[in-house]
Design a protein that fits this description.
Length: 101
């Protein structure tokens, strides 16, 4: 696979992942962190970092809109539930090598 094709395939896979995450607003970020070590906010940080590597300035809130499909404050109001004690305990038990940012 040549470099351009690889980039196009990776971009398509990223768009599919972001679209899936936008559709699955029922999945809480803390659950993603507990299970996979990353969440939508991590994805926004990766997006912001990738933009910077390409010479494009993008602030964190702009990146979160790209990932969430709406301003984070709106997503939080509409979809984010308060974390349970169990969720928080699982998160606090994670070690740094289990978390990706």
């Amino acid at each position: 696979m040549d470099e351009q094709t690889r980039l196009e395939v990776e971009a398509a896979a990223w768009r599919t992942l972001v679209g899936h995450m936008q559709k699955r607003s029922d999945v809480q970020n803390i659950d993603l962190m507990n299970l996979a070590g990353f969440c939508r906010n991590c994805m926004a940080k990766w997006y912001k970092g990738a933009a910077a590597e390409c010479g494009h300035e993008l602030d964190y809130e702009q990146a979160r809109v790209q990932v969430y499909g709406m301003p984070y404050s709106q997503f939080k109001e509409q979809y984010q539930a308060k974390a349970t004690t169990e969720q928080l305990e699982k998160y606090q038990a994670l070690t740094p090598d289990q978390i990706t940012e």
